[in-house]
Specification:
binds FE2/S2 (inorganic) cluster; alpha+beta; binds flavin-adenine dinucleotide; 490 residues
């Protein structure tokens, strides 16, 4: 068994913090505001939506030091071992001088009431560090997870441009101090298992994936916490105890993406951000869809493995993974079994998981060279919103006929599910408007969607049909034609 430690250690701005009393459900935002009296990071929603609490977390990743924006309100302190937390207070220059990003926000009138401003500054700071010449679209993407209710985004985007023009990144403290911070974090990452708290406070930070397997076998009903973008809300919104919790986002082995001849094997902790380059390279058809998952902070924290394990009927990756024929590898102790993602979802809140199992990896096959592949998300807001309906399609069209169709929907049933009647109605038929119209009737057999605050049952049923029509229009007439015709009768 790995050596055990009973404290959490991390860098907070320029200070080393060592904590020997932390509860599983303690959030970083409460720690900053209530214990450290560092009140620059704000609490707007406490559910990862508004970005007012945005901080940077630096972590060692495959020998590198990576800083990413995260929502402190749903990040647990127990998951910060050997990390560097950078808050808005760290941007203060000597004699209280403003940071170039803050200066630009002042000059461009990027703030009114100021409540969202620290979070916006942290998001723009991360962008300013990473991208010396951001486009408008890149600035907008970096702000997807920050809601401002009074200023309006025009002034904020101008501030981002002005900050970039001001330059000075190479003088920034995070760059100047990079080697020293890396050495400190390497020293903190001593390979020990962390065990802390008792009863409702208890949590573990495993030393390795094998150690996770041991812990999970000993505590089969423990709550595994990866990015915490679902579990965080169980605590902040539903006051649900999560102990004993096992925090796993630091496990490098679970962040690997391996390329094989048939597809990609991705570790359970690969985040949406980490998978973005693979999407661009192997699945460019869904790049737009991928960027509509959460906002930047949620994509930095949330994992594909967590999305699948969570089993929500409105998760955005399951329809895509089902359409691609992906499978999930579950591990219990030293034993592994592989289940098609499609079969993993048994019923609402019920997945093919035994106590003590955990998701270790996903196998995601490549799209065939001649396959038609697409995914669409329909939600109330464009950015940072959960799907009302999501759909993914993979079709083989040969000699103008549908040779094979795999069609999966989210938001239409108690689980992510294939539209098998629609698939059967399409298979062997010409890829034509008439076939689409005939196949649309199959949705009534495949799904009986419910109505809720996101969408009525009728709306969902209609959208499901329209998305199939949209695929047809895009494949036959191009994306622009679809935009013009999407209100059409098909
Ligand atoms: C503001 C906001 C916006 C969001 N937007 C979207 C969106 O657009 N689309 C979308 O699909 N989702 C969205 N989500 C939900 C969430 O981000 C995703 O479901 C995410 O993929 C969950 O991953 P995680 O690593 O954060 O999971 P966690 O919260 O850590 O865990 C989720 C569940 O999975 C289990 N789990 C995690 N990892 C493992 C593992 N390796 N083995 C076994 N069990 C495991 C946990 O025990 C828990 O039951 C959003 C969430 C927030 C807060
Ligand atoms: S307080 Fe709204 S995202 Fe954290
Ligand atoms: S300045 Fe008031 S919410 Fe953004």
């Amino acid at each position: 068994m790995a050596q055990t430690r009973t404290s959490i250690r991390f860098l907070l701005n320029e200070r080393l913090v060592e904590l020997d009393t932390v509860a599983a459900s303690d959030t970083l935002l409460d720690f900053l505001r209530l214990q450290q009296r560092m009140c620059g990071s704000k609490e707007g929603c406490a559910e990862g939506d508004c970005g007012a609490c945005t901080v940077l977390v630096g972590r060692l990743a495959q020998g590198n030091l990576v800083y990413e924006t995260v929502n402190a309100c749903i990040r647990f302190v127990g998951s910060l071992d050997a990390c560097h937390v950078v808050t808005i207070e760290h941007l203060r220059g000597s004699e209280g001088a403003l940071h170039p990003v803050q200066q630009a926000m002042v000059e461009m009138h990027g703030s009114q009431c100021g409540f969202c401003t620290p979070g916006i500054v942290m998001s723009l700071y991360a962008l300013w560090m990473a991208n010396a010449n951001p486009s408008n679209a890149e600035i907008e993407t970096s702000l997807q997870g920050n809601l401002c209710r009074c200023t309006g985004y025009d002034a904020i985007v101008k501030a981002a441009m002005a900050a970039t023009r001001a330059g000075g990144q190479s003088q920034d403290v995070l760059i100047r101090e990079r080697d020293r911070v890396m050495a400190t974090l390497e020293g903190l990452a001593d390979g020990a298992r962390v065990e802390m708290g008792h009863g409702d406070d208890r949590f573990f930070v495993p030393a390795s994936v094998d150690d996770l397997a041991d812990l999970r076998s000993q505590h089969p009903t423990s709550v595994i916490v990866a990015g915490a973008t679902d579990v965080g809300l169980w605590v902040t919104k539903f006051m649900r105890p999560i102990a004993p919790a096992i925090f796993i986002p630091h496990l490098d082995e679970l962040h690997r993406i391996e390329e094989t001849a048939s597809g990609l094997i991705i570790g359970a902790c690969v985040t949406y951000t980490e998978f973005q380059a693979s999407v661009a390279r192997h699945f460019p058809q869904i790049a737009h869809y991928w960027n509509r998952i959460g906002g930047e902070q949620v994509r930095n924290m949330g994992t594909v493995g967590g999305n699948v394990a969570n089993g929500s009927p409105i998760g955005d990756t399951p329809p895509v993974l089902i359409a691609l024929g992906a499978s999930v590898t579950l591990r219990q102790g030293g034993e592994r079994r592989t289940v098609p993602v499609e079969k993993f979802f048994i019923d609402y809140g019920k997945q093919d998981r035994l106590p003590g199992d955990f998701v270790e990896a996903l196998h995601v096959p490549f799209v065939g060279a001649d396959d038609t592949f697409a995914a669409y998300k329909v939600s109330k807001r464009r950015d940072e919103d959960i799907s009302s309906v999501a759909a993914a399609f993979r079709l083989k069209i040969s000699d103008g006929k549908v040779a094979e169709a795999v069609i999966a929907y989210g938001g239409m049933a108690a689980t992510p599910k294939r539209a098998s009647t629609v698939e059967t109605l399409l298979t062997g038929k010409p890829w034509s408007l008439q076939s689409i119209t005939e196949a649309q009737a199959g949705f009534d057999d495949d799904f009986s969607p419910i109505g809720d605050w996101r969408a009525s049952a009728e709306y969902r049923a209609l959208v499901a049909r329209k998305l199939l029509a949209r695929l047809f229009l895009e494949t036959t007439q191009g994306r622009d034609a679809t935009m013009l015709k999407r209100e059409a009768a098909v």
